[in-house]
Amino acid sequence: MRFHPLFYVVLAAVIAAVATHLLVPLVARLAVMLRALDHPEPGGRKQQLTAVPRLGGVAILVGIVLGVGSVAALEWNRVLANANRRELLALILGTLMVFLVGVVDDLVGVSAGKKFLLECCAAILLVSVGWSFQVVQFFGLGEVQLGIFNGVVSVLWIVGVTNAINLLDGLDGLAGGVVAIISLSLLTYAVLQDQGGSVLLMGATAGSCIGFLRHNWEPAKIFMGDSGSLTLGFLLAAVSVHSALKTPATLAILVPVLALGIPVIDTLLVMSVRFLRRSPVPLPLSDRFWQMFHADRNHLHHLMSHLDNNRQRVVTVIYAVVLLFCLASLLVATRRNLGLGIAIIVSQFLVVFFIRRQGMAAAHRRSAEAAPKGESEKAV
What we know:
- The protein contains 15 helices and four strands.
- A hairpin with a 3-residue loop joins strand 3 and strand 4.
- By secondary structure, it is mainly α.
- The radius of gyration is 21 Å and the shape is globular.
- It starts with a helix and ends with a helix.
- It has one domain.
- It has a two-stranded antiparallel ribbon with strand order 1-2. The chain has a two-stranded antiparallel ribbon with strand order 3-4.
């Protein structure tokens, strides 16, 4: 019996959600046994009250694999007929590379340089089978062929998005919910392009994130860790590049940038601040480069916490902003209007910049208010 394609997408999402939900307790116990735990850091980045397991990415990836794999098994003949085996193998190998480096990082730690190198290798695998941006449409300049730079631009995009999602994982439930929203928008975009593989993958990804959120909502019982955030970021990046292959030049990079704009723009601003940060002693360019990958509390969600102490409310507001711009990306995709897309990207930048400025101002006010109190206590 042949079902409507939407049935298979929903089936993949439900299987992924249920599988991830059921696997999380087992993975959490495994993380405790392996001592893969995030311990509280008073005044630092990790502000939970107790040690929390951080191998949630294992449950997430297994859920995605079971969701996609179950549907593929039901429709095996059609899958074999439509699948490009080289592309599929590159996606699987690239995802495994990113996932495994994330697992190792969750267990024993991996330097930023090694993670960056492996992420580049995984991205190059995708580019080598043709998953890359070919054309960019600049407002007022028309189409620009990337030519020999298409690989560089594509690798930078894949690695950038992978790390943007990784750096987004700073509040309970934030990364999982944001990835679910972006996955559903990329799923809808893939439906418009008739890209069945991407539709199925994004359906399973959204389902797995939703299943994980049951355990990751504040107070989180488990964190997805780098094994989860890097893997999810890589999958979103891969699908966004793949979607550009059948897209008119006007939208090739525009729609993915709109869908992923909030985490990507925030990451670019944070990395720029880190690169330009003043140091007591002059730093060489190489040190400034690696400084961009050092974790801190200057991301959008951290700064918003200075505006509102309720972290669940902060997460919900970010959900709403991401959803708004994902819907805008689909509007641009259907209208194929370059000017509208540019205007929305500018709006995204201004929204992120404004929230960051407000959060920084609130942080400075708190510091100024706390200083006299601290000094008077010290004097006593």
